[in-house]
Amino acid sequence: MQCEARLSSIFDHSITGICFADLDGLITEANEAFLKIVGFSRDDLSSGKLSWREMTAPEYRHLDDHAIERMKVAGTCTPFAKECTRKDGSHVPVLFSAALVSGSEAELVCFSLDLTEYKQAEEKVNYFAYHDALTNLPNQELFKDRLKHALLAADRSGEMLAVLLVDLDRFATINDTLGYVTADQLLREVAKRIVGCVRESDTVSRFGGDDFALLLTELVHPEDAAKIARHIQESLSAPFNFDEQELFITSSIGISLSPADAKDAVTLLKSAGTALNRAKKLDGNNYQFYTAGRTTKALRQLVLEHNLRPGLEREEFIIHYQPQVNIQSFQLVAMEALVRWEHPALGLLYPSEFIGLAESSGLIVSIGEWVLRTACLQSKAWQDAGFDPLRVAVNLSARQFQQPLLVESVAQILKDTGLDPTLLELELTEGSIMKDPNQAIRKLHELKAMGIQISVDDFGTGYSSLNYLKRFPIDTLKVDQSFVRDITDPDNEAIVSAIITLAHALKLNVIAEGVETQEQLETLRALKCDEVQGFLFSRPLAVTEFTDLLAERLTIGTPKDYSTTRLPDLLSVLHEQFR
Ligand code: C2E
Ligand code: MG
Ligand code: MG
Q1: Contact 35/42 with Cβ under 8 angstroms?
Q2: 562 C-alpha vs ligand 2 centroid, how far in Å?
Q3: CATH of domain 310-578
Q4: What is the pLDDT of residues 545-562, one digit of tens each?
Q5: Residue ranges with CB less than 5 Å from ion ligand 3
Q6: What number does CATH give the domain 133-295?
Q7: How would you class 474 by CB atoms within 10 Å of its CB: exposed for 0-12, middle for 13-18, buried for 19 or more?
Q8: Distance 299 CA to ligand 2 centre (A)
Q9: CATH says 2-120 is which class?
């Protein structure tokens, strides 16, 4: 009797859920702990329909089957973890074991231990194995892991990624004067601000102390990393408020790039560290690339970016004009307007240095409008001065072409300047047309309707569907200079020849750009190219120089047809025409 009393107190007070059931799973008796774990009441039990097997979440039922088989053979089963579905539908993780009741072949006693708290503790341990407890950011371990994965992915896709190491200047002093509690608060705040400067796909990590590390993926230019570094430094330079006290800090940042600086995680981190040390030695509050030249370039880009708008307002931009010539007669048929920036401190800058910046800041729209207006005005002025009308070609950037009011703006400029629309040619790249082909077709038709000529610049370097080429109202294809430069290479010659044949079949005009040598000219002539532009004839010229060229041409008289002239004699003709 004493024994039975003991057993029943175990049953009633155990924290382990215990139930008796038959082999099919039907529960005949259960203790409070069992009912609590699975969320059923004693009334539910009284209904005689509760089955421990049905409580098992479906994806774990095969484990129950296995346990039943074991019990039939050995009388007991090995404890295993599974999940049960509670009465309210929620899931509970349990450690489960069962055995045949002694002397019975049909009755089971089952034990279930609630693992919820254990699991939560385990998750916490796992979390803090990979996260920093102070800021909740990924720790060095997780950072390295992500970096390795990102490097593998970047290697496959050919994308650029950057590692940035951020360090607060004079943090030791801050720690000493403010004490650990405030310093910790500061670090948490710093973490938040840094996270606010990057995309969600980037990783911000704290390595310990005041050392933060960033992994930036899918970068297009090295300057993108510099931009983020600058953004972080600006964000950290705003005052921090603690106990009604304003605290100002500065930071130093080291940047390494993959694949340029290294393709493995260890070297990349080391390179960023080297760059960070250089930043620190420069008195802090700056960023440095591992490759020093990049820092200079990024800083120059920063200066240019800041000077772009004031430069436009102060009229620092100028246009050079490059002659375009008929390949048979050498007659000057048109000119291309090429923008330059006379920077007060940096001298004459070419479009490669600032058009990209102007594109990304949106200022290209204003600059482009200025170029168009100025080129039209100048062209008209030359006509008014008595020179023969010449077509003027103006480059339009993708962003400019996508402006909803582009057509209206061009029309307005033509009206204001009084230039005959048939004397204006707009140069577009394949990329800007193909971005939204339907929209492009509509706009091009509107421009054509005004009498404007359209040419496709850098043809052959982008992607264009030949089908669209037929549908676009285009007048001219400009063979990209990369093909012309190496036209002696049979592959390039074949490409140029194909472009010319294609253009002529579609009744388009072909102009080759970047013609520098007589050999290139001869080959282009043989391939029946229509027009040429390049240093062989003339570099892009300032307005006064171009005016001189026009004036000299007046004295040369009517151009002759040089189509039959042999190569050695061409040079003397060119000297006569363009000096
Ligand atoms: P692009 O339209 O293909 O212009 C031709 C470029 O080739 C010009 O460079 C020109 O100076 C250069 N070039 C001409 N002949 C030769 C030659 O014989 N050999 C070599 N190596 N180069 C030659 P630039 O002026 O530096 O312009 C570069 C690019 O900048 C232009 O390429 C054009 O895409 C863009 N750009 C120029 N002006 C403007 C503008 O006003 N607006 C826009 N959106 N882009 C412009
Ligand atoms: Mg062009
Ligand atoms: Mg071009």
Answers
A1: yes
A2: 26
A3: 3.20.20.450
A4: 999 999 987 655 444 556
A5: 457-458, 513
A6: 3.30.70.270
A7: buried
A8: 28
A9: alpha beta
